[in-house]
Specification:
heterodimer, A: 113 residues, mainly beta, 6-stranded mixed beta sheet, B: 114 residues, 7-stranded mixed beta sheet, 4-stranded antiparallel beta sheet, 0% helix
Chain lengths: 113, 114
Amino acid sequence: GESVGLHLPTLSVQEGDNSIINCAYSNSASDYFIWYKQESGKGPQFIIDIRSNMDKRQGQRVTVLLNKTVKHLSLQIAATQPGDSAVYFCAEILSGGSYIPTFGRGTSLIVHP
Amino acid sequence: DAGVIQSPRHEVTEMGQEVTLRCKPISGHNSLFWYRQTMMRGLELLIYFNNNVPIDDSGMPEDRFSAKMPNASFSTLKIQPSEPRDSAVYFCASSRSGTDYGYTFGSGTRLTVV
């Protein structure tokens, strides 16, 4: 899910399928990463985070994978539901710096019933 | 916890008018951030405060934009005069400074300048 130009990349899936949303981050020194979900008309909401000393972290139906070698994050959503339809952002933070997240452009997930 | 509270949720104004957006951060959070979100540029950080003091306003687009934080529980973002290109969703977020936990967004103000 790299985002370029004016249009967000879009991932369309069927209800019940697994979804994988990808993100490339920019700063190799970033050591904390967050995935946010933004539903229409709402602000971004925290989903799951991971620190750079881990390569995988699991939550409820969600898993984040971190590949520091290629500066890549992915968010896996198991058994995707219509309520998962939203824009998903990754954010990178340099702990010990300003602690201000740098956000990616986002990926739009559309779940078809 | 009521979360980050923004008002108004929607604002429609005529070009040239002054617009004031409001934000109440989460109690105990001492960092506050203003963002603008558009399809063209995504989420842009405009300004952030630590302990009510503006730290970095390099993201503020131009002198028409100003932000204040008179106390720990309230901040405003003002646009004067407003222009159609200011139409966007403006988000406020708060966190505890010096940590990377608890970064929380408000629901945003959708601004339309006609």
